[in-house]
Structure formats: C-alpha cells, structure tokens
Amino acid sequence: MSIFFNNVTIIGVGLIGGSLARVLKSKNLAGEITGAGRSRETLDLALKLGVVDKINQESGGAVQNADLVVVASPVGAFLKIVQEISSHLKEGAIVTDVGSVKGDLVKKIEKLIPRGVHFVPGHPIAGKEKHGVAEASAQLFVDTKCILTPTEKTNRQSLEAVKSLWLTAGATVVMMDADAHDHIFAAVSHLPHAAAYAMVNTVAEFTAGEENYINFSGAGFRDFTRIAASSPEMWRDICLLNGKNILEMIEQYQFALARIKKAIKHGNGEKLEQLFSSASNRRRGLG
C-alpha cells in the first residue's frame, strides 16, 4: 500500500517519536511534520536538528490540519493528550501511538476518539538505553517488530496505512490482541526493566570503605543493567498502567530466584547446574 501524509503531528518528539519523524522524512512519506509536547527545549532541539518542520506546544492547535497524529509521549499522559486534541481532529484523521501498554488503555482512548477519526493502537519494539530526540535515527526500527492491536472498532483502511508506515520503516508488523500484548510484554520487557532498576539500586547500596561496589562492575553487570538507563518517567507510567501483569511476572521471577537460592543454601550443585543449563539453552535459542 502506497502512503503519503500531507500533514503529520508527532506529540512527544523523543527517541521513538523523533525516529519515526526521521523515517517519514527519509522515505518521503510526509509533506510537513509538526512536533508538539510539553518541553519547549526539546521541541526547539527537534526543530534545530531538522527532525520536524515546525513546533507547537499547544497539542490542540498542533493537530488541527493533521492527517496522521502520533502520540509518542509517556503512556501516563495518553488519556490527557487525547482529551486535549479530540475536538481539534479533522474528519478522516488517523491517530496512532507507540505506547508499550495497550489493554484497558486502548478501550479508554477509543471512547475519546470522535466519530470520523480513526485510532490504530501500535507499539514498536525498538529503543536503546539513551533517550531523547538527539538520539533519533531513521534506522531505529530496521529489523525490529511493531505490534498493532486493532479492535473491532478499528478502521481497516487506516490500519493498513499504519501497517504500511511501519513496514516502510523496516519493521515486521504483528497483529495481536491488546490484553495478550500486555501479558506478553510484562514478561519480556516490563519485568526485565524492573529487575535492572532493582539490581542497580541493590548494588549501589553496598560500600567497601570509601568505594561503592558499583564502581567495580564489569561487562556482565553493565550488560545486564544497560536498560536501567532508560527513561524513569516512561517506565514509571508503564509499571502503573500494566501493574497487574507486572506483579504476576515479578512473583514468577521471585519464585525462580528462590529455587536458585535454595540450591545454593543446600549446596546442591546438581540442581544449580540444571537450572543454569535450562536457562542457557533457552537463551542461546534466541540468537
């Protein structure tokens, strides 16, 4: 499907929103891109870097002529943003998002979207530990996955347009139920981030004389905790919005740690090797 948007508004021009803007420009998919958001400093930088063509801190004004609106702010702000822009959206406009929580949030957003405007929920599985528009890249989504979670209310033509956008960005598009999405990503994304934050805080509390233990960390610790450098605001919102699923995964993780703890406590090397071998084989299978 060939796509072109005369006017695109991206609300939240950070790493993901900024990278999508760079895709739209590099692939000639948009006529004009407007950046919107709370931080004037971020918007000025996005304009200076050529990520967007113009800026507007007023979300309502920023979307008035938009054919495509991308909500790329922290997910905790989604409902407020949609409330602010709903009366300013023109008929036929497509609203999509890049949030890593779907489920009930999708249902609430659908209720706020006015008749004649089409909402397509999305979640690109891409990112890096450094965040902000200065890190934006048109290559960020190449060889990644993008999850779309359409509902029975989703306009099929708009769904195909958003799918085509992500395919052009280099992603493989996967369709998924919104609730299933939240359960899966609580396990493979949200839990690892919570664990990484907890690991850094745990080690940072130990000192040896005047030296903090964390100063002696090597490649293993740094690799494991790399994602703890991600945006605290973004992960705060994710944990609150997908709390039920994340708590379930934390309990499962605690159970797995307890098995290792028990084997160490009882000097059971055979059990430890069994647990480690199982994990090692599965990890190698990921490539």
Tell me what the structure shows.
The protein is α/β, with parallel strands linked by helices and 287 residues long. The protein has two domains: 172 residues, NAD(P)-binding Rossmann-like Domain (Rossmann fold, 3-Layer(aba) Sandwich); 105 residues, 6-phosphogluconate dehydrogenase C-terminal like domain (6-phosphogluconate dehydrogenase C-terminal fold, Orthogonal Bundle). 48% of the residues lie in helices and 15% in strands. It is built from eleven helices and eleven strands. The chain has a six-stranded parallel β-sheet with strand order 3-2-1-4-5-6, with helices on both faces. Strands 7-8-9 form a three-stranded mixed β-sheet, covered by helices on one side.
Summarize this structure as a short list of keywords or feature phrases.
single chain, 287 residues, alpha/beta, 6-phosphogluconate dehydrogenase C-terminal fold, 2 domains, 6-stranded parallel beta sheet, 3-stranded mixed beta sheet, 11 strands
